[in-house]
Each structure stands twice: as C-alpha cells, then as structure tokens.
Amino acid sequence: MATKSAVLGFPRIGPNREVKKAVESYWAFKTSAEDLEAAVKQVRKQRWQSIADKGVDSIPSGDFTLYDHFLDAANVVNAIPERYTKSGLSALDIAFAMGRGRQQLDKGIDLHAMEMKKWFDSNYHFVVPEISPSTQFKLNKNKYLDEYNEAKELGITTRPVVIGPITFLALSKAARDAPAGYEPLSALDSLLPVYVELLQQLKDAGVEHVQIDEPVLVQDKGESLGAEFAKVYKKLSEVSPKITLTTYFGRLGKSLDFVKDLPVYAVHIDLDRAAQQFDEVVAAVKPTKLVLSLGLVSGRSIWKNDLKASKEKAEKAIAELGQDRVVVSTSSSLLHTPVTLTSETRLTDEQMSWLSFALEKCDEVAVLAKALNGNTTEAFEKNTKDIAARREFERNSDSAVRDRLAAITEKDLKRSEEFPARRAAQVEYLGLPKFPTTTIGSFPQTKEIRVARAKFNKGELSKEDYEKAMEQEVETVVRFQEKCGLDLLVHGEPERNDMVQYFGEQLNGFIFTQLGWVQSYGSRYVRPPIIVSDVSRSGPMTVRWSKYADSLTKSPMKGMLTGPVTILNWSFPRADASREVQCKQLALALRDEVADLEAAGIKAIQVDEPAIREGLPLRKADWDNYLEWAVASFRLSTAVAESKTQIHSHFCYSDFNDIFAHIKALDTDVISIEASKADMKLIQTFKNEGYNSGIGPGLYDIHSPRVPSEEEMKEKVKTMLEILDANNFFINPDCGLKTRGWTETEQSLNNLVGTAKWARATYA
Ligand code: MET
Ligand SMILES: [Zn+2]
C-alpha cells in the first residue's frame, strides 16, 4: 500500500475570475441562467483537470459555488426561509437573494440579504442559515452528487466535500420565528435523515470516498458535542461511502477524546495552524483503525511548503500507523489561496521561489506522497534548495525598524489627555452639529475609476493624468457630500484599489500579485498583499488626497487609514516572524501617517479595524495574548494624535460583544460599527460597559443595493436612543460605499441626512 495525497477544496473563482464575471453579468440581466451555467461548467472542468494533472489522489468536488458553499449547504437541505421561497423566484435567484438581497419593487420583491459571518478566523464570509422548529428539512438538490457525476463524465473520480450536519447547525442561527433561546443544534434529529439520504445517494452512485467537513471540532463548543458526533456518525457510516472527517484551522483539543472513537474511515487534522497536536493525535489514533490525514501543506498561507520537514513528520506518523494509514493533504480547502503562481509575470524569480498558490500546493501534496512512497523527484530536491534560500533572505531583513520597535514604551501607547478633555477640544476644532452625519470612507468605485487605474497600471496613462483623474473624482465626491448635506466629509478613496493593498503598495516589506485573487464573499475577491520582510514607511501615503479634498470645502475632512491589525489580517503574513512583531511594525508606519495628516490640517482621522475580531484565535484560551498586542498596535498607531484631532475607528461584522472591553481599550473618540444586520444586543453592550465616547451604529446595510427608507432609519435611531446617549451619536451607513452605484447611494444618503435632521428636531 502507498501513502495517498489529498486536496480538501480548491478556489472556485476561476484562474481569471471567470465566475465573478459570469455571475455579475447574470445579476445585471445581461446573460441568462443557461449562459451562467455554461460558463461555470468550464471553470469546474478546468479545476478538476488541473488538480488531476498534478497527480493528486483525492480531488474535491461539490465544493464549487456561485456564491458561498455554506449557503449552498442550506439549499441542499432546504433550510430556506419562507420569505425567499414565497417570492416566486427561481431556485437560482432564491439562492442569490439569500446571499445578497434583491429589490425589484415593480415586481413586489424587497428581500434583505441573510446575515454573513466570517468563516472561522479567515477573511472568507459565509451566509448564516436561519433555523427554527418550522424549518422543513428535505433533500432539495444533491449538489454533491451532481458535481461528482459531472466530474465522472469527464473521466475524473472525485471525493465529494460535504459540510457536516453538526457544523452546519452549530454555525446556523435561530430564525426570527423560533422561540426564545432556540438552538439550531436541537434540529439535529430532523436534519439527520436528509444527510442519510444524501450520503446514501452518493454511495448508490458509486462514490467510494466522501469528505465531511466538521470544523466546529476545533472550536471550544465542539468539545461538548461528543454525544451528537457519536450518534450522527454511527448513523451516517451505516449508509455512507468511506468518510474522511475533516477538521481545520485549529487543534482538536479535548474533542480528540471522542473523535478517535468515531466510526469513520479517516480523520483529518490541520498541522499548519495547529502543528502542536501532532504527537497527541498520532498517539490517540494508534490503537484504532482510523486513517490519519495530515494537513501539512497550508491552505491558508502562500508560502512554499518545506517538503523535507513535512516528509519527516509524515514518516513519524507512518512509523506509528503504517504506510496505508497515513494520507498527506492540504491543511484546509485551498479556497483561501490564489489559483496559480504561473499567472504571475511581475514577481522576480527569487520571489517566485518562495511561494506556492493553490495549484502549486496540489503539486506539493503529490510530490510529498511520491517521496513518501520512495520516489524522491527533482521537484523535491528543488524545494529543499528554495527553502534554504528563503531562510537566508529572512536573516538579512531591515534592522532599523526592529530597533525602533524595541525602543517603544507604554507612554507611546497613550493619548496625552483622557476622552472628556479631548472631546471639548474636538467640539471646538471640528464644529460638528449634534447627530453629525458622516460616511465610512469609500464612495462608489465607478467603471471610469477602474478603467483609469487599469490604464495607469498598464502604462497607458501617465502618473500625472491618473492623479488628475483621481483628483477629479475626489472633487465629485466632495461636492456630492456637500449637496447631500453631510457634516463630516471624506475624500472617497477613489485612489484605492483595496483598503489593504493600497497601503501595502506604499510600504516597504510587501510584494503583490497580479492575479492573486481570493474570494472574500460572493463575487467579491481580494488580492491580499504578501508581507515578505520587515515593514516600514518610505513617505506619506494618503496625505495628498486628504489635503486636496480638504482644500475644496469648508466642512471638516476625515482622513482614512487602514489599521495595523487589519492590514496584517488581510495580508498573507510572513511565516518567519510573529504576527505581533509584524503588526507593531505596521503600527509604527501608520503612526507617522497619523502625525503627517494632523500636521496637514486634517481634523479627524479614521483608522479602520474591521478585521480585529476575525484575527481572534479560535480557542478562547488564546484570546488574551492576541488582544493584548492587537490593542497595543492600534494605540501605537493613533496615540500620537493631539487632543483636538478626532480619532475614529470603524468595525464591521462586529459581533464583538465578547471582546468589548478591548474595543473600549482602543481609546478612540468615535467608533462606527455595523449594527444594521446585527441585533440590539451589541448596542446594549456599549451601554452596559459604560462606553461614553462617540458612536455611529450603521443605519443601513451597504452590502445590498436596496435603498433604506427614512422611516426605517428613524425607527433604528429611535430604538438605539432608548439605550444610547443622544449627545455623542453619529449618523452613518454601516460600511464603505465602494461597491454601490451612485443612484442608490444618493437616495440612501439623502434619506440618511433626512434622518439626522429629524433626530435633531426630535431630540433637541
Ligand atoms: C471593510 S471596512 C471599509 C472601510 C473603508 N474606509 C471603506 O469605506 O471602504
Ligand atoms: Zn466596514
């Protein structure tokens, strides 16, 4: 017997973002459902063939999606809220409406999007299913079987990837019609028969292996689900193809006690994010019959795997378990990495030699398996050389910034005065009215902007002309805000391709890809910068834009920076330095930028930290350590500001009830949060925890094209003011407007300003 290789999942976007193009043109009513299907069928075919070409044994299927695989899982088991089913839309449009909302008032359709949450500690977002006692589970559409068959017709045998029933429910939320305190997991008994049927169908179709993802097992809450796991997997294993139960992004911890006894074929563990569990897991499964799938090749980073080290580790497992009880695999789905390095033309050979994207990772698992089976290939030898060269490069990184960081003291983390004194200074300096209106920073990024940027990047537009075009855009945005009657203006961020990439491009220590897109949610993809060495700032990054915008208007201007924690969390970090060190180096660069903006007369500066929460370790035991350096980094970047300068911060997907004390410890003057989709619990937390600084709860959801009415926003303000203080309340959307169109933005912001006027009159 030989050691096999496996890939747990692959990017769904296509090597040239084909899926984005196809779905967006369908959404714009430019193409039909048939066109869409034909386009994405090509993408699926290509991904299977390219993985197969690398020689991987277990090739994933069923993990493809047009929007979100978790949303698909809800559709498979018919967990579709009634408001969508009764809309009369097609199944495809229902799925899209669940993901992104749909407004067609002439047809009587006005559907909000369902809530989205971060997928564990990644920057991928999944749609949160809504479950209640009235949810009618049934096998709606076995997409896992459909994709398996589709691949089979191409002559490729795949391993279907199914979201496990326990994780499915554990990550769902109670629907509005559910009784108070309802737990979706209590629906397990009614969901189970659907999974039985689904897996039975796979088996009947000749599927030999199935991958069932149960990442809830790496969370604390997984540890209390032993009885559920035992029961569910006993039942499923009676009818199912051989099950590989996969866990990823963290360690099994105490869950190992029951996982080792589950009646499944194999268990997969993540040895990238949780390498420390190796010995313990090997020892635990040794007396069982379980096959152990070793997640050695990172699904979350873009660094080349150290194949020699991986081989040694796998050999240790083989020594304990035997050759045929070990599988070498990616640590998680590769959906968090770009498709392929071969599309990159601007990276140097040296840089290329450090990296490995999804397809190259497929190669790595295959090469590793071959080496374990006694065939050390040329590719293996080259890997050993590349890894050694990278280590050498790291040793020669920048020492000036390391020294500056070492000299930082507590004092550098503190504003010179406390909030009440700062507030008095800011009232005077900014002159804002009560219920000040503002936005979160970006304005619609029109086609013209993107075309200008593309031309500039291709060298078809001079730097001068490009900057002129952006200045014109800034002027449009400033005039637009004046026309709407907003109080605290922004420059609109037209010059930014992306809130992280933009900064990375101006900092030392980063490199960029041309096509390194990674799905963030739906058809939104990002191209995370890669931190390759020590980080420093070579000069002001945003000052010219904010200063220009400021020169156009009498209203106060808010400068716009992305915070250190978010830059770190939305980049691919180095593997050779701690995240803490990388974060603090970023904070130092931003600190200089804050000082420069202030000196240029910018009266308010917003430092966005939307990613602070998603960086939280998955296990609570690890939280304090992270939060301590994350908060210190934020403060290091902002505490340099004078009292009169109003420091804002912005958070979205901000389910941060449980880290509130740390949010408070950031010591910002104003924070804006996403509250339009969340419940009032968060607002209550602010009150309970004695938060007295400024707060701007998002009054409408910018992720959807629907225009919120004035009435709707007034209602929200009313409810919030039952809890919050009217004297330090900002009126704003819940995030930036860059994905929106101008028409809906104008209507929405007019309604927003109307709401503020009403509030001023009502709460005078
Ligand atoms: C994801 S948070 C986005 C904040 C940024 N300032 C924007 O308005 O786009
Ligand atoms: Zn946001």
Automatic annotation (TrEMBL):
Residues 5-316 form the Cobalamin-independent methionine synthase MetE N-terminal domain. Its cofactor is Zn(2+). InterPro entries: Cbl-indep_Met_Synth_N, Cobalamin-indep_Met_synthase, Met_Synth_C/arc, UROD/MetE-like_sf. Pfam families: Meth_synt_1 (PF08267), Meth_synt_2 (PF01717). 5-methyltetrahydropteroyltri-L-glutamate binds at residues 20, 123, 570. Keywords: Amino-acid biosynthesis, Metal-binding, Methionine biosynthesis, Methyltransferase, Transferase, Zinc. Pathway: Amino-acid biosynthesis; L-methionine biosynthesis via de novo pathway; L-methionine from L-homocysteine (MetE route): step 1/1. Zn(2+) binds at residues 650, 652, 674, 735. GO terms for molecular function: 5-methyltetrahydropteroyltriglutamate-homocysteine S-methyltransferase activity; zinc ion binding. Its EC number is 2.1.1.14. Binds 2 Zn(2+) ions per subunit. L-methionine binds at residues 440-442, 493, 608. L-homocysteine binds at residues 440-442, 608. Residues 435-757 form the Cobalamin-independent methionine synthase MetE C-terminal/archaeal domain. The active site is at 703 (proton donor). One of its GO terms (biological process) is methylation. Belongs to the vitamin-B12 independent methionine synthase family. Catalyzes the transfer of a methyl group from 5-methyltetrahydrofolate to homocysteine resulting in methionine formation. This is 5-methyltetrahydropteroyltriglutamate--homocysteine S-methyltransferase. The lineage of its organism: Eukaryota, Fungi, Dikarya, Basidiomycota, Agaricomycotina.
